[in-house]
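User: Before I run my own analysis I want an independent prediction to cross-check against. Here's the chain; please return only the structure tokens and, at the end, one sentence I can use as a sanity check.
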Amino acid sequence: MPDYKLVTFQTSDGSRAGALIGEQIFDAAKLTGNPTHATMLAVLRDWRAAHAELRRARPGTKKGIPLGKAKLLAPVPQPGAVYCAGANYTDHVAEMARAQGREAGPTLKELGEKPWHFVKTAGCVVGPGTVVKLPAYSKAVDWEVELVAVIGRTARDVPVESALDYVAGYTIANDLSARDAMRREKVPASSPFHYDWLSQKCFDGSCPVGPWIVPASQIGDPHKLAIKLWVNDELMQDSSTGNMIFGTAEQIAMLSSRVTLHPGDLVLTGTPAGVGMPRRRFLKAGDKLRLFIEKIGELEHRVG
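Assistant: Structure tokens:
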């Protein structure tokens, strides 16, 4: 079969996992001949076998759904966990330092530290075309385009050298952030309770993901991809995944040393320069966002 992308598409009675081949979507379970492959989580939990069957499948005379007529949902509608890398692009770290009126110092990696992650709730995840409601408590919602590694094998204490073997594929996410809700001003900055990660990062719809998952075997090196974001057709972020401080394998290895990663978990690998905070420009109702990552495609959504 030609290269394919994994999608979750809406049906009259719910949703199904599918394979996008060209401009046609085919039911994944029908292609693999395994009725358990009806959902994306089921496909990912059986990734080695499912991927092999999908690569061998021949749609033949099977009737697909035209992509233009399908309603795509988030590829993994209810991930078990969403891990997000912080301060993980050299250009982004530099721009944030400038915004605070200081010189960019050594990176966490240069300091001998390990990758750093926070967690979004699964309920943050929404699909392509969604209109994300801006939270009433924030006037400073920012954008962050990110490459997402989708876990396809249970991972615990995996070494860096083999960590990418646990990735089923890659997709795109927007790590929306309520910048004016990140600090509790009445709590001293030295307190561990000064930062409010829940309000900043976990409002409903704060993680648009999609439009599909491209199998890792079709991506090759995930650190040689152009990555961009537009707001209302104005280019804001324009970088390369090669500017990551900690690579995807380093992140997965670190995470797996602390928690067990499960099929369907999402690892957002950080965002490059070009976010709104340093220029004091934030999203407003009606804005359209378009995110692009080379070899994956484009994710579009709006805010309202």
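Sanity check: The longest strand covers residues 207-215.
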